[in-house]
Task: inverse folding
C-alpha cells in the first residue's frame, strides 16, 4: 500500500478549521444535497461532504440541516429534484453530478449551487468563465478531456495482449463525447478495436457486456457517469466472470475488486466542496467564486485481481500507482 498524495494535495490548498464557528451563532442553515445515484452506492460521498462541513463548524442537527434527494440513477428526475430543492428557499445546494450542474442552468434557479463535475463547465455552457462563473453555479471541475485515452493506454500497459476493448459509456451524459473521442484516438494509435456500448439505464449493463463478449472483447473500459457509479459490484462481478481486464472511471471500482481505476478521488472532492458552501453561507456569491481545478488523479491497481486474471503488472506501472491493493 503506497501513501496517497491526492487528498493531501488538494487539502493543502485550504486550512481546515477544525472548530471554526459558523457565521451567525444562532442561525440554523439549510443546505440541499442532490445525488444522481442512490443512497447505497453514493451515500459515502454525502458523508464526506458532511464531514467537510463539520470541519468548518457546521454540525448537523445543531446549526445546519441537510435536505437530501437521490435520483437513483434516473437522469430524468434530476431537474425536478433540483427544482424541488430550489423551491424550499434553501441557503445553498450541493449537487454531485454533471447532470445536476446542467439542470442548474435553468432560468428559475435563484439558489447558489456548488457542484463537482468531470468536464469543462465553460465548454458545456454552465458558467461564463472559470474565474468568474457569473451565475448560480460554482465548485470543482476536472478538465482533463484526454482522461479516456489515458485509461485505455494504462489498460494496454497492464494487459499488453488486449486488442478488442469494450467501452461502456452513456452518449447522453455531459462530457462523455470528449471522452469517447479521446479513447478513439488512443485506440487508433495502439491498434485496438473498440466495441462501444451506449448504456443509459441500469438494466442495460448485463446486456451490454454480453454483447461485448459475443463480439470478442478481451478488455473493458467503464467511463464515469451516474448510471455506472452505483453499480461497481455488478461491473466487477461481470468482468471477473468474463475474465476481462478492466479499468474504471472511479477509484471505488478497484477498491471493490476491479483490476484498475484512474480517476479523481470523489470523496476527497466532495469534502473539499464544503469550502465553497461555507463561503456562500458567509455571504459570497456563486457568480464570483472561481471554479477550482485540482488537476490531480489517482491510479489504483488491484494486484489480487491481476493474479486471478493471470496478469503480471509491470513494475513501473505499480510504482506509479497511488494505491496498490495486495
Result:
Amino acid at each position: 500500500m503506497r501513501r496517497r498524495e491526492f487528498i493531501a494535495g488538494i487539502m493543502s490548498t485550504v486550512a481546515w478549521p477544525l472548530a471554526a464557528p459558523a457565521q451567525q451563532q444562532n442561525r440554523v442553515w439549510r443546505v440541499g444535497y442532490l445525488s444522481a445515484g442512490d443512497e447505497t452506492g453514493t451515500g459515502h460521498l454525502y458523508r464526506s461532504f458532511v464531514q467537510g462541513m463539520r470541519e468548518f463548524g457546521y454540525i448537523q442537527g445543531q446549526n445546519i440541516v441537510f435536505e437530501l434527494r437521490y435520483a437513483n440513477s434516473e437522469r430524468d428526475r434530476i431537474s425536478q429534484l433540483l427544482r424541488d430543492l430550489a423551491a424550499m428557499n434553501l441557503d445553498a445546494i450541493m449537487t454531485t453530478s454533471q447532470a445536476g450542474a446542467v439542470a442548474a442552468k435553468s432560468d428559475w434557479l435563484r439558489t447558489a449551487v456548488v457542484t463537482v463535475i468531470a468536464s469543462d463547465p465553460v465548454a458545456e455552457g454552465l458558467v461564463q468563465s472559470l474565474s468568474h462563473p457569473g451565475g448560480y453555479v460554482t465548485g470543482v471541475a476536472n478538465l482533463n478531456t484526454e482522461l479516456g485515452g489515458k485509461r485505455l493506454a494504462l489498460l494496454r500497459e497492464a494487459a499488453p495482449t488486449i486488442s478488442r476493448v469494450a467501452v461502456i459509456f452513456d452518449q447522453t451524459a455531459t462530457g462523455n463525447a470528449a471522452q469517447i473521442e479521446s479513447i478513439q484516438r488512443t485506440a487508433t494509435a495502439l491498434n485496438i478495436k473498440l466495441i462501444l456500448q451506449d448504456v443509459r439505464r441500469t438494466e442495460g449493463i448485463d446486456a451490454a457486456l454480453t454483447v461485448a463478449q459475443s463480439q470478442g472483447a478481451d478488455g473493458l473500459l467503464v467511463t464515469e457517469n451516474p448510471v455506472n457509479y452505483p453499480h461497481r459490484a455488478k461491473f466487477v462481478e461481470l468482468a471477473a466472470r468474463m475474465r476481462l481486464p478492466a479499468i474504471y472511471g472511479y477509484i471505488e471500482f478497484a477498491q471493490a475488486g476491479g483490476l484498475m481505476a484512474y480517476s479523481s478521488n470523489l470523496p476527497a472532492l466532495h469534502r473539499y466542496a464544503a469550502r465553497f458552501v461555507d463561503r456562500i453561507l458567509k455571504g459570497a456569491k456563486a457568480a464570483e467564486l472561481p471554479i477550482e481545478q485540482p488537476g490531480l488523479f489517482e491510479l489504483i491497481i488491484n494486484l489480487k485481481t491481476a493474479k486471478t486474471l493471470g496478469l503480471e503488472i509491470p513494475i513501473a506501472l505499480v510504482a506509479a500507482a497511488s494505491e496498490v491493493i495486495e
User: Anything to note?
Assistant: The chain has two domains: 6-142+265-288, 147-263+298-325. DSSP finds twelve helices and twelve strands in the chain. The longest helix spans residues 39-55. The longest strand covers residues 29-35.
